[in-house]
Every structure is written in C-alpha cells, then in structure tokens.
Amino acid sequence: MTYSYYPGCTLKDRAKELDLYARASAKALGIELKELPQWQCCGAVYPAVKDEIASRLSSVRALMDAEEGKLVTMCSACHHVIKRTNYDWNNDENFRTKATNYMKPEVPYDGSTQVIHFLELIRDEIGFDELAKRVVNPLTGRKIGAFYGCMFLRPGKALAFDDPENPTIIENFIRALGAEAVTYPYRNECCGAYVVLEDKQVAVNQVDRALHSAKAAGVEELITACPLCRYNLIENAVKETMPVHYFTELLAEALGVKEVQ
Amino acid sequence: MQKIGVFVCWCGSNIAATVDVKAVAEAVKNEPGVVVSTEYQYMCSAAGQKMIQEAIKEHHLDGIVVCSCSPRMHEATFRKTAEAAGLNPYMVEIANIREQCSWIHKDMAEGTEKAIILARSAIAKLRNNMPLQAGTSAVKKRCLVIGGGIAGIQTALDVADAGFEVDIVEKRPTIGGRMAQLDKTFPTLDCSACILTPKMVEASQSEKINIISYAEVEKVNGFVGNFTATIRKKARYVDELKCTGCGLCMAKCPAKKGKNEFNMELDNRPAIYIPFAQAIPNVAVIDPEQCNKLKNDKCGLCERVCTAGAINYKQQDELIEREYGAIVVATGFQPIDANPLNELGYAENADVVTSLELERLMNAAGPSKGTLVRPSDGKHPHTIVFVQCVGSRCDENTKRGKPYCSKICCMYTAKHAMLIREKYPDTDVHVFYIDVRTPGKNFDEFYRRAVEQYGVDYIKGQVGKVANENGKLMVQGSDLINGEQITIAADLVVLATAIEPDPTARSIGTMLTSSMDTNDFFTEAHPKLRPVESPTAGIFLSGVCQGPKDIPETVAQAGAAASKVIGLLAKDHLVTNPCVAGSNELLCNGCSQCEKVCPYGAITYIEKEVRGPGVREVRRIAQVNPAVCQGCGACTVTCPSGAMDLKGFSNQQIMAEVDAICL
Q1: Is residue B238 predicted with pLDDT exceeding 60?
Q2: What is the pTM of this model?
Q3: Are A47 and A55 in contact (CB under 8 A)?
Q4: A154 chain-B contacts, CB cut-off 8 A
Q5: Is the CB of A185 less than 8 angstroms away from the CB of B343?
C-alpha cells in the first residue's frame, strides 16, 4: 500500500528520527510512505489562530496533491494544521471561496482528501491486533506513558479521531508493542509550546506537572508524536526527568528495524 | 349562493404592521359568495365580536371567515360569537394571517399578498362547509396519575380531596420519588423526609387513592373523559396484602450484592428489599437479577423466615385495565449521566460525586449514616469543590449536555455548601459557577447567607480538568474575576449535574399522543396561559416532566393540574368534536388500510348490504365510531378509494383550499 506523506519541516531537521523510524517501520509493515513531490511548511500552529488565508494555502496545496484521497501526517502540529484547514475548507464557505480565488487552481480542491495521522493509519488500516502480530521484539515489561499534548486531539470537532479528554489511541499502540501502557491525568495537557520563548517558567510549570503526574502513576518513559512537546519535556524538565521518545522510535524497535537506520 | 362575511383583524400592530389589512378586506370583497368584508383593530374584543354578530344578522350570513391569529388561539372564541348570533359554529373559518403570515414576514407587499391568498383559501373552504352538530360523551369519574413523586402525590391528594377516585401508578416499588432521596430542602433547610412522608402516608390512607406501585402504564386508548389504560403490575414475588414490612427477610437474605438504587448505588442492598424505612407500600420486593432462588432455584431462605407467608416465587406480572376521565403525567426527572464528561473525572474517581449522591452521603439514612466521608477511603474531606452547571447550559452543537438551565442546581449547591460549613467548620468549600441564579422567595437571601455568613468561596469560572494526584483531586479551573488559572487540591468534588426527564417520558408521551420538546419535556397547551395542560385534551402535566422545577413550584403545579382534573371530572358530559371521519359505503372496498393507521382504534368492519345505483350486495365496509374518532385524518389520506372523509375537513374542502391557493 502506498500513501501520500507530508513529513513537515521539523522532521527534516530537529526531529529527523520521527521521520526516519516512521519510514523504516512503514516499510516493515508493508506500507510505502510516498513523500509529496513538493510541499511547504504548514505554518506550525500559527495559521490556525490567525484569521488569515495566505498562511494556510500550503496546507491546501498539500491536500490537493495527495493521491488516492488520503494524506498521511506524522508531526502533531502538521496534523493539527492540515486537518483543521481541511475541516474549514469543508465547513467555512468564506475561507473556501477566498482561498480558491487566491490560488486560481485549474481544478478547485473538492475537499475530499482525508487527513490521517500515522497512528490512525496503523489503527484503522492495519489494526493494532495485526500490529501486535508483526512485533518481533516485544517491549515487554516497559512502563510507557503517552504524552498527547494539547493539539494532537483538539479541537475535537475538527480533529475527530479520539476522545480529547480521555484518549486511548497511543495507549492501545503501546499495548500492541507489548509494553504496559500507563495512563496519567496530564497526558493531554499543553507542554508550554511556543510560550517557552516568551516565558520559560510557563513551560517549566507545565512540564513539571506532567512529569510529576506521570512518574507518580508509574511511567518510566514517555512517547509522543510532537517534536515541540518532546523538546519541552526534555529541555524544560527541572524537578523530574524522564526519557522521551518519538512513538516511531519504539515502533521501529518493536518491529526490529531500529538498527537498520 | 351562500352569503359569506369576511372580517380582517389588525391585532393592533401584530398583523397591521406587516399586512395591509384594508387591502386584504378590499381584495376579497368580490370573491364568490362574499357579501361583506371589513377590518377592525381587535376582532376578539367585545366590540369586534359585536361587529361580527351584527353583520351576521344584518346580512343573513351563512358563514364567516375571520382573518386573524392561529385557530388555536381564538377559533373557539369566534365559534361562540357566531353561535350566539344564530350561526352554526362550524360555519366559521379562520385564516391565520398572524403566526403564518405577519409574524414571519418583513415585507409589507409580500405579507399582504400572502394574507389575501390565505383569506381566499379560507373562503373557498367555507363555501364547502356544512353545519355540524356536536354530540356529547359521558365522563369517567376517575383519574390516573403516572408517577408517584411529590408531583404525583400532591395531584392525587388534591383530586381525591374533591371526592374523585385516583390511581397512582409508580414504576418503582415505593412512592416518594426523588424528593424522598433528598436530605434537606432549600431555602428553609427542613428535612425532606419529614415533610414528604406525611404526604405519602396521607395518600396511602386516603379512601379515594389507590397506589399501584412497581407498575407501568403499558397502553392507553380513548380520549378526554374516556381513556382506557392497561397497567402492568410487575411481579414483586411478595404478596402485598400479606407482607407486614417487618424486614426479617432483608436481614436474612444471603445475596447482598444488589446495587442500592435509593442510595444512588453508593452501597448495596439484599436481593429482597424494602427501598427505605418509610417506603409506601411498606412491602418487600425481590430483585430477580440478584435472587438465587429465582435464578437457580436455590436458597429460599426468605420464604422460610417470613412469618406472614408473603413470599411467592411464582408470582407473575399482572395486567390491570381501567377507565379514566383524566390522565396526569408526573414522571419527573433523573440526573444526567456524568460519565461522558471526561474532563471532570467522574468515571475514574470515586471521590467525584454528583449532588444527588452527596444528598445520600449527608443523609442520616444514607450509606455513611449522615457522616460526610469520601467514598474512596471513608475519610472526612477537608476541601470540597462544587462544580455548577455540569451538563446544563451547553452549546447544543457540542452535544455535551443540555441547552437549558436546570434551575435547581444553584440553590441546592448553596444548600450543600452551607450545611457542610455548618456541620464541619474545618472544611474549605469552593464553588465554581457561571452565574448564580436565585430567583425565588427567600432564595437570594439564602445564597448570600452561604457566602457572607458561612464563608463559602464562590469562584466565577468553569472547571477544565479534575486530575487524581496521589488521592488528591486537582481541580483546575479559571477564576474569571481575578483573571487567572487556578488549581485547588480537593478531597471531594461534587458535580451539580443537569436534570433530564425520566427515560420513560418519551414512551409515555407517544402512548398519550402528547407532544414533547426536543429535550423530552412535555409541551404545555400554552406556555403562559395553559401551563398545566397538554395540547392533547384530558392529559395534564405535573412537576418536572414539563420543565425543571424546585419543590415549591412542583407542588404548586401539581395543585394546578389537580384543579384542572377536578374541573373536568366534575362534568357529567363533554361536548364531542363533530369533525370526525366517516366512510362512504358505496366507495369503501373493505381493504382495512384505515383500520391499520387509526391511532385510536375507532374503525371496525361490518358486513353490510350496500344499495346504490346498479349495486345491491353484501360487502365488508369500514365503520367509524364517532365517539372514539379524534378527527386526526390519518384514515382519509390512507384510503385508496377515497371513501373515507373527515367532516369539517372533507377532501372537497381541502381541495378547494388548495385550488384557491394554486389556481
């Protein structure tokens, strides 16, 4: 199976592992992630809060270029921006009209592309049961917590692939890899995100609370789909520290393709 | 040729602001049959009615068209007006140019054009009207009350007081309803049981009131004054007449894993149980899901210990059929399920409770005997956070709760906060609120006492998350007045959950053909002027089934419903609606389609000799019982041969109306 794939800028630089392990794991699972021939930065969350059209056009172009009606995303922020842009395309006539007028494409985008995160792809197209069967190095005995962060699931109306207040997708993923999934209350809170640039203490407080809560629940390592969350969870951890990996790294490890990289 | 009068009402500016009433009167002046056409500011006023009556006499009118408000508003008024002037009341037609025209249009030209069309269509129908004579039907002097909470009990007591028989049908094993579960009542803080149980006893001792507990209404037929209800009395496996309520069986029953519904499932009860000490009837009931004898034919201990010989494992459901003149719906409410509101952690944390659970935790007869403790570890909570508007006042699109205000939560939360501060002064009490709504006698004074005298900390803002951190509940919320995000480490969190109609309400509404709103509250006949009557004649509404209410309001409405019932049952006969269906024997082919669609069971089939031009044979034909037919018209549109017709709304009349609009 081949899927159009939008990696995003961070995955070409600071979060290379997220991308590399994903490609290796996909291959092991019999999936080809075919990178879009051309793509631009999604705008990294900012376009979603600004009432502006131009910064969202890169998302629209990516949506238009996707083949077979599906576009796979990997980074939380890209997933958030592209999926919300797609949602607005289908629900906000003003945005759709203005963006179409601006881009003047030969064939206007019809809104039909489905944005699916790589985790969703595994859950819905492969199935966690099937994934469990493909695991060659089960992560038995490891106590892993999911850090969803704030934008992976919200706004629930637009992202709409798991319950934003009580998500289960990463926990089920962890279980499929043979590890113990530990839930803790602050797994779906904001890590401090870009606020760290203006007020570091906000991120420190958020990260501290999340790590404290995770540790109290028995988590020994965290996984996430968000480069920004990983950055804050590592760089701004003061009182507590914990290993934080991308979910694809553990996937590659369980599938026995980590060392190939 | 008939002589028709047309009377166009201004309704002050309600109609006249959007419809040129003079132009309407002028436009229909030359319609066939119209001999007089005029307008007036308030046609329903005494002067307006006098004008109509004088015109009827002066022009010897055969029928009138009143262009005014909805017929639901004033059709009866104008029929009486016409009748007093010697005209058959069914020769009156209403053209609704207010609700269906002036109120929904902004443009005068459009509104006027539509009003003229509506008037023409009413005139066209009137030309095909026939004078109709109303019959009478006897009134069954018995009232059915569905639901035995405070609303049902109060209605029953008031109706019985006037000398009429009342049956209360209660689905639970005892009457008392939600009020029986409450600890104290606002704003006087008197004990709920102390004021409710005397009423329960009074109802059980009344010669006129018959309590049918552990029973549900299964079917209702008939119409105002003549309902027939089928009631299923569920098997309790205990003979009600023999059981003395001694409670020995409860003490001996070895199966003690039943969820105690009365205590909001905070503790367990035996398989054979009496819901609470003051239950009425004070008779045990066996939970067949829990009883080992009924499930596996083992045990049988209760039968052996019962000195009254009341246990009967072979008892079956019993069907009771009774006739009633009036039916009162008093089905009440339940708190919404807080489990789907994930951010508040109700599902995961035992120490996040609903307000009704807190009532049981504070009640002397509750699971903790009135000592306020945390359900998780039985320890005294030192910091308690109340969250208001849980599932109330929600954006409908989010589907996270109810759009309405549940009305009672602000007051009961103030009550809880105050009682806790009074009894446990070492406890910190915080309340998150959107607004505090206290309209009611002595209500705001009560709330202010909670704040000023008892030091309850009210925080304007909503709660975004309740997280369990080593047994402490971290309540994260916004403090809008200080403009900051705050986190309170609480021992107990109490959710003021919204209330919703009892889940049986929808099926009862369907059974009674009584309309409901989108939230499953029963609709009243008029929101201001007929608040305790359902639009379906003979069905009355009592208590929260009609909308959220506190106890005083419920009792007031229950009394009002009772007075309407008494007014109905005091009559020996009711005037029946002559607009009923009838079958044309020559056209009917006996296909039974009409019988299948009739919601009232008014159609039967007979073998009859039919004589007509060139026809003389015995045929199976439909016959309508005019006393049962409610004139809904379902049969007339179903009949494939056009044999079924509705008086007052005949196919010919409807087609004339349509033609007047379309041609």
Answers
A1: yes
A2: 0.83
A3: yes
A4: none
A5: no
Domain B581-647 -> CATH class: alpha beta
The three-state secondary structure class of B190 is: strand
Show me where the domains of chain B are located.
4-126, 142-234+317-332+502-569, 248-305, 334-500, 581-647
Rounded to an integer, the average pLDDT of B268-295 is 96
A259 to chain B, closest Cα gap in Å: 38
Please tell me the total count of domains within chain A. Answer: 2
Where b means 16+ CB within 10 Å and e means fewer, B505-544 reads beebbebbbbebeeeebbbbbeeeeeebbbebebbbbbbb
Following DSSP, what letter does each residue of B420-454 receive, concatenated?
Answer: HHHH-TT-EEEEEES-----STTHHHHHHIIIIIT
Residue B175 main-chain phi, psi, to 5 deg = -80, 175
B339, B342, B493: best to mutate for the A interface, most A CBs within 10 A? B342
A35 and A92 belong to one structural domain: yes
**Can you tell me the distance from the alpha carbon of A173 to that of A134, in angstroms, rounded to the nearest whole number?**
13
Q: Provide the domain limits for residue A180.
A: 136-254
By CB neighbour count within 10 A (0-12 exposed, 13-18 middle, 19+ buried), where does B469 fall?
middle
Token pair 């842009």: residue: A85
A124 occurs within a structural domain: no
B142-234+317-332+502-569: what CATH class?
alpha beta
One-letter amino acid at B562 equals A
Note the Cα A176 to chain centre separation in Å: 18
Q: Which of A165, A186, A216 sits opposite B342 (nearest CB)?
A: A165
* Architecture of the domain spanning B4-126: 3-Layer(aba) Sandwich (3.40)
Chain B neighbors of A189, CB-CB under 8 A: 465
Residues of A in contact with B345 (CB under 8 A): 185
- The residue of chain A with its CA nearest to that of B470 is A216
Same fold, B4-126 and B334-500: no
Question: How much is the average pLDDT of A217-241?
Answer: 95
pLDDT in tens, A49-77: 777 888 899 999 999 999 999 999 999 99
Rounded to two decimals, the ipTM of the complex is: 0.77
Distance, in Å, from the CA atom of B500 to the CA atom of B391, rounded to the nearest integer, reads: 10
Q: Are residues A107 and A23 in the same domain?
A: yes
**End-to-end Cα spacing for chain B:** 21
Amino acid at A130: E
Same domain, A189 and A108: no
Amino acid letter, residue B348: E
Quick: pLDDT tens for B61-94.
999 999 999 998 899 999 999 999 999 999 999 9
Cβ contact B115:B97 at 8 Å: yes
Residue of A190, A199, A208, A213 to mutate for B, most B C-beta atoms under 10 A: A213
Report in angstroms the alpha-carbon separations of B569 from A145, B161, B330.
Answer: 68, 13, 18
Chain A residues with CB under 8 Å of B341 CB are 165
Please state, in angstroms and rounded to a whole number, the distance separating the CA atoms of residues A78 and B280: 63
Which whole number is the average pLDDT over B271-291? 96
Task: State whether A115 and A16 are in the same domain.
Answer: yes
DSSP summary character for residue B523? P
For A:184-223, CB contacts with B below 8 A are 185-186, 189, 212-213, 216
Q: Among A124, A59, A126, A122, which residue's Cα sits nearest to residue A87?
A: A59
Same domain, A112 and A151: no
Query: How far is Cα B272 from Cα B319, in angstroms, rounded to an integer?
Result: 23
